# Entry
Amino acid sequence: MTFLTRAQAREYDRLAQEQLGIPGVVLMENAGRTTAEIVLELLENDLHLVAQDATVAILCGGGNNGGDGYVIARHLANAGVAVTAHAIGDPGKLRGDALVNWAVADRMGVVTPFDSPDLLQSSLIGPSTPHMIVDALLGTGFTGQVRDDLAAVIHLCNDAREAEGKIVSVDVPSGLDCDTGQPSNVTVRANATVTFVAPKVGFDRPEAEPYTGNVIPVEIGAPLSLVQQVLAEMP
# Structure
């Protein structure tokens, strides 16, 4: 199986855009749409729910991972799911492709501003626990320690799993270093991780498995030959 480092994944995105001319917003659209399709499959196959009977909460961070989350929210809403995209990252600080997709989701009425962990807790835990939570907080660029405000959100996410919620992480579980496979001070414990292009090298480490759950690689619109080019240029 092919694995990618953080740097190789970035190079893949760069070549897809600069060498092949695929706009970044198209790559984000493909990533989010495909992840939404996986979420719908998991709802049907694992929870035996049709879209119209399902509830999904998406936790969107302040970078491109959050942008993926807003795309996922749009496609799930279009499929009939009762979906809420929680804007954990300040939308006013979004840029580029992530900003574009936040704006669309916001106009659709599926975005809820993040006010406090207490209010988020009431949405994730208890009688209102969604059938599935999508973790789109932190992406492959994360290293080090999760800052306090996001740590509180990740704790709630994991608490919701204990309350029978299912968690799907986008590309990488938030708080996990995708190169080393090491968890940070707090890390999402996903039931499944939908990862783009190829699994990340850290996923192959035994200590990563409790956090990634089932790893599901998906393509985002560029040919697989581009992966081989990246591996040849950046072994």
